[in-house]
Amino acid sequence: MGSLFSRNTTPVYRNRTNQPKNYSGVTPKIYRCKYHDYVHYNEPWTDKLTGVEYKAGYYDEDGNFYEDVVFSKQGVVSDSTTAVCKCDYCGMEDSRPWPDREKPCIHCGGTMHLVSQIDTLVDDENDSSGSYSYDDSYSRGKSSASSAIYLLIVGMLFFSLFSGIIDTYHENQRETYYNPSSFQSNSFDSKDYSDNYSDSYSNSYNIPTLGDYMFLKEEGKGFVLTDEADYKDNFENGGYKHLSLDSDGNYYDASTDMYVWLNQDIDPPQFQYWLEGLSSEYGDYGWMEYDSIEECWYIETSNENWEKLDDATYEKFQDRLWHIEYEF
Ligand SMILES: [Zn+2]
């Protein structure tokens, strides 16, 4: 294994300018590649002297930032490499194995594009990366600040993990208690629908055809249903929403953490909304409806008891409350 010995020779790195400063996390590594040399910083940090905030990730010799870099060796990216991908539709980003990079968005089914920069490692050995050598100013004053940041990061990780568990718990609760929702998932299937309802009932309303996705366009004080072609042509201009159908028969809007479904079990049919953080306060209940005539929200606080959303609650959540205007 001659390559083991070549590690001891000092690699020639490109001259570095415009570099981030005063990092206090674990020693960053440098990756010498065909196009750039990348220094990888494991944690985000703030330069205490200048107040500049730096993101975790890769910085090349000119100080350009990359969220992620995929390293190929002799033109081949190993299957065990992870890549960062982003959905063209809903904007969700994830980290996934390299071979899965073209698989559709797990959230909405949209097409994904690669966020990671791709570059070829110059060295051939398994670990071609060296530790980035720091001048004294980088390691000075490390102890207290870095442990504080470390605790903060651990705390944040713990919190996000914990709130994830809580979310899942609420999700499960909702699935368990909110039976009409699971019932609704059947009625999206037209066959089941006609089995359960007489034709005269289903024909008496202007029921929109909803598929796996709901496309919405901002209009007036709310949103109106639109189609995929309109969405594709115009979503980049803003004012559009793209919601995917989940297994419970609800359409989910990630930007507001709100679910909507079309309740056809009531007369007239209604779009009903579930806003995480508000609806979830009501246990088995908490679904909401928007009254377009009164221009206000109602929330089901207990069985068939609908209360007008009070002003204070509305103001607290108004940034995340949106509704669909539709004539049934
Ligand atoms: Zn997506």
Question: How does this model look, in words?
Answer:
The structure is a single chain. By secondary structure, the chain is of the alpha+beta class. It has helices at residues 2-6, 136-139, 142-177, 179-187, 190-196, 199-203, 228-234, 311-317, and strands at 29-32, 37-41, 45-46, 53-54, 57-59, 65-66, 69-72, 82-87, 93-97, 112-114, 117-120, 130-131, 213-219, 222-226, 240-245, 251-253, 258-263, 270-275, 288-291, 296-302, 305-308. A six-stranded antiparallel β-sheet has the order 14-13-15-16-17-18. A hairpin with a 2-residue loop joins strand 20 and strand 21 (305-308). Residues 1-8, 134-146 and 166-202 have low confidence and may be disordered. Bound molecules: zinc ion (ZN). Residues 87, 89-90, 92, 105, 107-108, 110 line the site of zinc ion. Zinc ion is lined by residues 87, 89-90, 92, 105, 107-108, 110.
Q: Please outline the major beta sheet.
A: 6 strands, antiparallel
> What's the arrangement of strands in the largest beta sheet?
14-13-15-16-17-18
Q: How much helix, percentage-wise, in residues?
A: 10-25%
Shape: elongated
Low-confidence stretches: 1-8, 134-146, 166-202
Structure summary, number of beta strands = 21
Our count of helices gives: 8
Transmembrane segments: 148-166
Region (Disordered): 1-21
Keywords: Membrane, Transmembrane, Transmembrane helix
